[in-house]
């Protein structure tokens, strides 16, 4: 039985994970951390991590970038693996996670969906075949409450493609400000915000007389919760280091 601490337990994703774990015989939530105390859960909820001193195997974090430093400090003090699912982290914060991984196991993915990570793997295979003959554009669509743009997932897709290309790519976010033809080395990233769209990501490979598209659509937040819970089970008893969805998928 995997004992989970859920940071951000009373947020939207926290409540989805709470519901998912309640129907899972292989894990349980033993405590939650959240400054919002308006929701009654089946487990105790604390406003700060240091208030909880009970037993746990792993922490899932679906909260806010501002709490990362304190959360990592708590994990290092307790020697607990941590699953970082929070988006919008800065380059400095990602380095902070890397530094922490020298002491504890740290799992990070810009998107916890198994499907999205399969999409990324397929995109890398496509790049190997299509490089030089196809222009690459990424379009992401999310609900009107999402703050960061482009999404962390769109950037993760672009980074994976960039790592696969034989040349350094140039990310282009805004075409209206510069009137010029598209460069072959560009990866265009486009953000759409509207309604209640959970999350759509399209990768467009546009060539001469043909277009290839890879697409993933999330219809509920549960797809991210499923990945987070699988990661929690996977990370139990792992040695210190950085882990991601590639490690999880290769273990399934």
Termini Cα gap: 18 Å
Helix and strand content put the structural class at alpha/beta
Uncertain regions: pLDDT < 50 for 5+ in a row? none
Average pLDDT, to the nearest integer? 94
What coarse outline follows from CA principal-axis ratios?
Answer: elongated
Strand content: 25-35%
What portion of residues is helical?
Answer: 25-40%
Major beta sheet summary: 7 strands, parallel
Q: Topology, please?
A:
Elements: E1 2-7, H1 12-22, E2 27-33, E3 45-46, E4 58-61, H2 68-78, E5 82-84, H3 91-100, E6 105-108, H4 114-130, E7 135-142, H5 152-164, E8 170-172, E9 186-193, E10 199-207, E11 210-218, H6 222-235, E12 241-243, H7 245-251
Parallel strand pairs: 1-2, 1-4, 2-3, 4-5, 5-6, 6-12, 7-9, 8-9
Antiparallel strand pairs: 7-10, 10-11
Helix pairs in contact: 1-6, 2-3, 4-5
Characterize the structure shown.
This protein is of the alpha/beta class. It contains 7 helices and 12 strands. It has helices spanning 12-22, 68-78, 91-100, 114-130, 152-164, 222-235, 245-251; strands at 2-7, 27-33, 45-46, 58-61, 82-84, 105-108, 135-142, 170-172, 186-193, 199-207, 210-218, 241-243. The longest helix is centred in the middle third of the chain and has 17 residues, at 114-130. It has a 7-stranded parallel β-sheet with strand order 3-2-1-4-5-6-12, with helices on both faces. Strands 8-9-7-10-11 form a 5-stranded mixed β-sheet, covered by helices on one side. The model has no long low-confidence stretch (mean pLDDT 94). 33% of the residues lie in helices and 26% in strands. Helix 1 (12-22) packs across helix 6, helix 2 (68-78) packs parallel to helix 3 (91-100) and helix 4 runs parallel beside helix 5 (152-164).
């Amino acid at each position: 039985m995997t004992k989970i601490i859920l940071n951000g337990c009373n947020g939207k994703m926290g409540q989805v994970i709470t519901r998912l774990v309640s129907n899972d015989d292989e894990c349980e939530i033993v405590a939650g951390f959240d400054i919002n105390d308006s929701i009654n859960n089946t487990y105790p909820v604390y406003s700060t991590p240091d208030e909880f001193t009970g037993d746990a195997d792993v922490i899932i974090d679906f909260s806010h970038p501002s709490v990362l430093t304190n959360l990592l400090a708590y994990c290092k003090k307790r020697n607990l693996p941590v699953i970082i699912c929070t988006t919008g982290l800065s380059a400095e914060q990602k380095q902070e996670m890397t530094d922490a991984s020298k002491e504890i196991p740290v799992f990070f993915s810009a998107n916890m969906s198994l499907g999205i990570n399969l999409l990324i793997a397929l995109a890398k295979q496509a790049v190997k075949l299509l490089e030089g003959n196809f222009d690459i554009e990424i379009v992401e669509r999310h609900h009107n409450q999402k703050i960061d743009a482009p999404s962390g997932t769109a950037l993760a897709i672009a980074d994976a493609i960039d790592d696969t290309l034989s040349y350094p790519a140039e990310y282009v976010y805004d075409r209206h400000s510069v009137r010029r033809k598209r460069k072959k080395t560009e990866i265009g990233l486009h953000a759409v915000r509207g309604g209640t769209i959970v999350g759509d990501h399209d990768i467009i490979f546009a060539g001469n007389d043909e277009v290839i598209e890879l697409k993933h659509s999330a219809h509920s937040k549960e797809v991210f919760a499923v990945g987070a819970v699988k990661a929690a089970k996977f990370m139990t008893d792992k040695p210190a280091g950085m882990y991601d969805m590639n490690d999880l998928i290769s273990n399934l």
